[in-house]
Amino acid sequence: MDKKSIIGLVLIFLIFMGYMFWIKPSDEEIAARRQADSLRWVEQKHADSVAQAEAMQKHVQDSINAVLLRDTTLSDSLREALRPESKVNLGLFDVNKGNPDLHITVKNNLFAVDLQSLGASVQRVVLNDYKTFDGHPLEVITPDTDNFNLIFLDAKSTDISTKFLPFEVFSNGKPVTDSGVLNVPEKDSLVLSFRAYVRPAAANDTAAASSTVDKDRYLEFRYVFYDDNYEIDFDINFHHIKSSVSDLPNLTLVWQNRLNRQEQFDRSQKGRQGSRNKDVERFYTTLYYKNVEDNADCLKDGRDDAAQLTAPLEWVAYKQQFFCAILMSETGFQNAQQLQVSTDPSCKNDNYLCDMSSILGYEYDASQEDFTMDMQLYYGPNKYRLLRDMDRGFERILPLGWGFFLTQWVSRFAIIPVFNFLENFGWNYGIIIIVLTILLKLVLSPLTYKSYKSGAVMRHLKPEMEAINKKFPKQEQAMQKQQAMSALNMKAGISPLAGCLPALIQFPILIAMYRFYPASIELRQKDFLWCNDLSSYDSILNLPFNIPLYGDHISLFCLLMFGMQFFYTIYTMKQQQSQASMPGMKFMMYFMPFMMLFIFNSQSAALNLYYFFNLLLSMAQMFAIRAFVTEDKVRARMAKAELQNKNKPQKKSKFQQRLEEMQRMQEQMQKQQQKKR
Q: Rounded CA gap, 1 and 571, in Å?
């Protein structure tokens, strides 16, 4: 690469950077776009509400719309609802107004779950074995949010929203009268029940209702916790209240949560929607769902999206980069389902990520005296083996590549099993990445050897190839030139496809690694050399300013990867013979390392370490093979092949015979066309 080429590349790079800076929108334009996005979000919300109204009764829809409106003072308003003068109508469940507002924390070996008797819902989940990037307790469910609500009609056609309903609390069948902490017994379970009673049929006035309670007729939210399990059994029981609940078959579950950041992020990219390479955690955050009859699907990665579904759903998952919350049903959620991921433009919290909400229908069987909604909850890590062993298809929420190009198969049946096997040795995860890279190189070494050998042989055959090009310079001599080239390659014992096949085979592996490392929770907050977290970028210098498309930090593993790729490109380009007639391709090959530098600066250190070491091994393989395949050996092989062909003519394959026949036919057609002229 000469001095002029280097100057040209630098100038092009500076022009590109200047152009990107020039087209960068002003602060006023950014504010206008955010305002427009907010208006579109509101319009979409309204359109979704209208669509929902077509599927459900009007009185149920009114309650759903009220739930979807976010109230920033929600906790105060809920407590206000308990007062006798409150406008909240509890209908036939008003006998529960005197129940105290209790806060119960249930702890097992894996997490601590905070529940509130007002609404009987999970308010907060903190995982024991994990911390956020800044050392705070890791919350899968954020506190002080209106997470869960069941909406239905009582026999008096009153909308009942359980988020306003104060329940009575029982632990393993015993009443709980005070807020506190409950521990799950070792190798056992703990049952936490929340019961809301109905007004007896004989109590028609408020005074009688407040003094009369039938303990055998109630709505129950029942949670079963286990000592060493992230999964919670969750049932909603309608016990002997058939006459107090409307026979309308539609029950509506509203499940929503505000997600906060848990991983390190490039603060210069905060709030940039759709930034796939910079805001990594936002890119890996989305809502997954599984149809009863189909595979798992999801809303758009890394951006606001919504879906209106009619098919029954088996489960819904709120997924972040490494953790998730899943609500599942044994019988499936029926009727119209509304799923949404949205961003609140008014939120100024740096750790705010997005909001997720689901409106799920459930069919109520009014013919049963006791009716149960059988469900489960999962609050835990996105660990492949853990999710797979639950046998519900939860492992599909892991971004392991695309099925159409074998990347999912490579991840599930090659990379993950080998990675898990290497974990058993107790090595540092950086060492595991290096060993895994070496093993992959060894498996692919036969194909790599053929590829590099083909390139080395073609480099030695350069004089013969140039002679053939000079011998057949005209366009109408293309067939003769192709035949001569094929004969030369056959004599040297190489195939033009030998260099393409290894690249095609390695491509799914590269894509699988690109998806596997940033999503592997095993690498989360694991250190290696100067890196504190292999799942995030390794910053050796935080810049006081932001470089467009690059970020506000410098990743050393990314720099090493860039340097290795740049020298690898220089070395391989010197060996290529076809680039002289393709200057555009030559420029792209030299420009690619600079693109990778910008794209991967905020990617995980594990990914950059893999690419760096993979390129390093490729360089070593290339040097070794090209040192072994010398020109003398190539010439000797060609002479031996020529001697064998003289003594024993080589039998042509059917493909070669057909190819030659096609070439002869094309030559005849060209000759006929020339005669006509």
A: 10
Q: Are 286 and 341 in contact (CB under 8 A)?
A: yes
Whether residue 642 is found in the same domain as residue 598: no
Q: Do 543 and 567 reside in the same domain of the chain?
A: yes
Dig out the tokens for 421 from the structure.
């096997």
Do 249 and 111 fall within a single domain? yes
The answer as to whether 669 is a domain residue is no
Q: Which residue has the tokens 């890119």?
A: 283
Residue pLDDT, tens place only, 644-675:
655 555 555 555 566 666 666 766 776 666 66
**DSSP for 304-349?**
-EEEEE-S-EEEEEEE-SSEEEEEEEEEEEEEEEEEEEE--TT---
Please count the structural domains in the chain.
4
Over the stretch 333-343, which tens digit does the pLDDT of each residue have? Answer: 887 788 999 88
Domain match, 490 and 578 both: no
**Distance between CA atoms of 405 and 643, rounded to whole angstroms?**
44
Closest CA to 161 of 196, 122, 193: 196
661, part of any domain: no
Q: Which residue range is the domain that position 423 belongs to?
A: 399-536+605-646
Q: Does 303 share its domain with 451?
A: no
CA distance 131 to 321: 14
Domain match, 51 and 109 both: no
Comparing CA positions, the residue from 429, 583, 597, 418 lying closest to residue 509 is 418
Residue positions counted in the chain: 677
- Percent of the chain predicted with pLDDT > 90: 17
Q: Are residues 370 and 390 in the same domain?
A: yes
Residue 533's nearest CA partner among 433, 437, 429 is 429
Kindly report the number of other CB atoms within 10 A of residue 79's CB atom: 13
HEC states along 366-392?
CCCCEEEEEEEEEEEECCHHHHHHCCC
